């Protein structure tokens, strides 16, 4: 059924985590600022939001996250130095981050989970649908996911989550969705959500990955959601209530993503993401791939 739903323009990026898996690198540097080739991971996420038409970005931050604000702000001293040198290429790269979107920031305070981080965005979001992008998941821009999710939400209403098929033995690492098929092969109706189930209890092998398009009805549910796993307010628990009762905030749909995704929250996957993206760069790829072939051959 075609509906007329408000155009989505706001994105929320939770960025209050401590990044303990990357210590000691993240002792004084936010994990979101770790470079993926020559851009911090967080910039890829903001670029994805902008590419999907979301020009208003709220970051939910915490202590020691000031570098995030600095990165998306102007640096007049650096820009002036590059201008004097006539280094137009680097000047353009420096200015890109400050010109991407209208940026806003709010502190989470107590780190009480993803659901609580989303709830912190309520005053900024208001009564409009909005997107949530987790910084650990980088989605290749050649495989647009968020724009497809926005399309489904604007047509169907309710909320939309991103799903990806994973090895059933790995489903305990993710939120998991029970689903029903629709007429579109990449879209499902979500009937059940379970946070990090044991493989024997999982309703499917479809894992929730870090992209959501949410109805503002989620805020009222989050306010009533009790802490769950890890004593945190889980966004999955709130979405489960939406999926169970569509009268609360419309249906919950899932978009099944089969494209390229880079998990920068895991050290091994972070390194693989850098290698993949470097290999595909026109300016770095040819020389880097040649070196990589030689290195791998020597090590085998």
From TrEMBL:
It is an enzyme of class 2 (transferase). It catalyses: alpha-D-glucose 1-phosphate + UTP + H(+) = UDP-alpha-D-glucose + diphosphate. It holds the Pfam family NTP_transferase. InterPro entries: GalU_uridylyltTrfase_bac/arc (IPR005771), NTP_transferase_dom (IPR005835), Nucleotide-diphossugar_trans (IPR029044). Its EC number is 2.7.7.9. One of its GO terms (molecular function) is UTP:glucose-1-phosphate uridylyltransferase activity. SUPFAM superfamilies: Nucleotide-diphospho-sugar transferases. Residues 10-274 form the Nucleotidyl transferase domain. The keyword Metal-binding does not apply. Keywords: Nucleotidyltransferase, Transferase. Belongs to the UDPGP type 2 family. This is UTP--glucose-1-phosphate uridylyltransferase. It comes from Streptomyces albipurpureus. The gene is galU.
């Amino acid at each position: 059924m075609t509906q007329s739903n408000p155009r989505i323009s706001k994105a929320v990026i939770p960025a209050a985590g401590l990044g303990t898996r990357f210590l000691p690198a993240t002792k004084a540097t936010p994990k979101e600022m770790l470079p993926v080739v020559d851009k911090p991971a967080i910039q890829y996420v903001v670029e994805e939001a902008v590419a999907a038409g979301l020009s208003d970005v709220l970051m939910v931050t915490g202590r020691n996250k000031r570098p995030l604000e600095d990165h998306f702000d102007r640096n007049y001293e650096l820009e002036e130095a590059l201008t004097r040198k006539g280094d137009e290429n680097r000047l353009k790269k420096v200015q890109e981050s400050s010109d991407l979107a209208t940026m806003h920031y709010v502190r989470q305070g107590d780190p009480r989970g993803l659901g609580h981080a989303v709830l912190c965005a309520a005053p900024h979001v208001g009564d409009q649908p909005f997107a949530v992008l987790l910084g650990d998941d980088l989605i290749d821009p050649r495989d647009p996911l968020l724009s497809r999710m926005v399309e489904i939400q604007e047509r169907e209403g309710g909320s939309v989550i991103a799903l990806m098929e994973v090895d059933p033995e790995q489903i305990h690492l993710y939120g998991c969705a029970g689903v029903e098929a629709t007429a579109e092969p990449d879209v499902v109706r979500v009937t059940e959500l379970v946070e990090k189930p044991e493989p024997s209890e999982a309703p499917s092998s479809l894992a929730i990955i870090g992209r959501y398009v949410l109805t503002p009805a989620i805020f009222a549910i989050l306010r009533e959601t009790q802490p769950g796993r890890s004593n945190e307010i889980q966004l999955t628990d709130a979405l489960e209530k939406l999926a169970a009762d569509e009268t609360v905030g419309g249906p919950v749909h899932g978009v099944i993503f089969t494209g390229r995704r880079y998990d920068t929250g895991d050290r091994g996957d972070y390194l693989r993401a850098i290698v993949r993206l470097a290999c595909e760069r026109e300016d770095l790829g040819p020389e880097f791939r040649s070196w990589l072939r030689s290195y791998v051959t020597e090590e085998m």
